[in-house]
Amino acid sequence: MRGPRGTVPARPHGEDTSGTAASFCRSASRSLACGTLGDIRPSFLPILFGAGLVVACAGAPSRRTEPVPDLRVSALVVERLRASGGVSDDEVLGLSARLGLRAVAGASGRALVWGASEVRPLHPERNDWTATDALATILSAGVAPTEVLLVRARLDRTSAEGRQEVAGRSGGAGVGTSAEWIDRARIELIHPSSGRVVVESSADVRVDPFRTEGEGPGPLLDRVLEDALAGLEARWARPPLPALESWRLLGFSGGMGLDGEVRRLAQLRLANPGLGEDEAARLMRRPTGVFIRTAEVTTRLHAGDVVTRIDDAPATPESLDRARQGSREVRLEVDAAGSVRRVRWP
Predict the structure, then answer these.
(1) In what helix (H) or strand (E) does residue 333 lie, and over which residues does it extend?
(2) Largest CA-CA distance found in the chain, in angstroms, rounded
(3) Are 279 and 225 within 8 A, CB to CB?
(4) Measured distance CA(19)–CA(26) in Å, rounded
(5) pLDDT tens, 37-53?
(6) Ramachandran region of residue 226, left (φ > 0), alpha (ψ -120 to 50) or beta?
(7) In 96-195, where do the E strands start and end?
(8) Alpha-carbon distance 317 to 334, whole Å?
(9) How far apart are CA 43 and CA 58, in angstroms?
(10) Rg (Cα) of the chain, in Å, rounded?
(11) Strand-pair category, 75-78 with 148-167
């Protein structure tokens, strides 16, 4: 059934079940649940909220499509997340990595994917091939430019005053204001050869930072990206393949000390859907690269491996998936819990 103005409501997606930002942040999360900030410094509160310390009321995505005759999609180029309204740099880093990981999972086998770390913006306001420097890479990979879509995501955050009941000192109850906000996510699938927005999907979520369960910006973007890719169902150039189960390890960022540890761990969890706090703490000690969650019998990779380089270039989930779909053998550098080995793959 079509909604207002030609939009198509999509089915609701499951809620995020991730916990707090780190095992050593449990006391901080308890303070947040009680409506206090405790010892958590305001400079990195937004990234903690983004990693899961929120409760939210989410709406289903709405989708708009524009027909492009004879369109076949064989590649996606994921741009860096655009954001406004107080979305932190830490969130942009983690969510940009998450978009690439989710695009690989959604398009596995059906299209090659290039991530935000592999392309540079040139004229980001444009909808043609001058928006990024990806065209040369696309041509060198033997992909027809007419079969490529840009994945452009935006997250806008606005304040929304809320009301909540608070306990009084004498045992009574009153009503006070809460610092709620609204996250709005929009994803456009742009055909740079024609400049058309083939699919546009959007949704929003109302966030209460003083509650400890619910959906943050990561699951919101997941739902909107899933809905946007569903709009291409009849346009893929190839049939799907099961995605390689992996996580993206971002490496060192976020500063020193406890603040830096909290920020890095929150970034890691924000970038990787389903990553729990205990495993995230362990993965922080592993090198930057692609962590293999489940081994494939047909490959030389094992569960727990971290692919750090592919043909002497830094490994990403996008480049590993392209190598997996390619016809030529590549050389991987793999960290296996401290020992390094080199393998030919796939």
Answers:
(1) strand 330-336
(2) 74
(3) no
(4) 9
(5) 333 344 444 554 444 44
(6) alpha
(7) 112-114, 148-167, 173-191
(8) 14
(9) 26
(10) 21
(11) parallel
Query: Is 112 exposed, middle or buried (CB count within 10 Å of its CB: 0-12, 13-18, 19+)?
Result: buried
User: Which residue from 161, 208, 215 is spatially nearest to 185, judged by alpha carbons?
Assistant: 215
Structure tokens at 32: 């947040």
Strands 148-167, 82-84: pairing is: parallel
pLDDT per residue as tens digits for the range 314-325: 999 999 999 999
285 contact partners, CB below 8 Å, separation of at least 6: none
DSSP label at 132? Answer: B
Which residues are within 8 A (CB) of 116 and not within 5 positions of it... i.e. 6 or more apart?
Answer: 78, 79, 80, 81, 96, 97, 99, 100
List, in sequence order, the alpha helices (H) in 242-336. Answer: 257-271, 277-283, 317-325
| This model's pTM is above 0.85 | no
Mutual orientation of helices 317-325 and 89-107 as an angle, nearest 10°?
20
Strands 306-310 and 289-292, bridge-based pairing: antiparallel
Q: Determine if residue 305 is left, alpha or beta; phi over 0 gives left, psi from -120 to 50 gives alpha, anything else beta.
A: beta
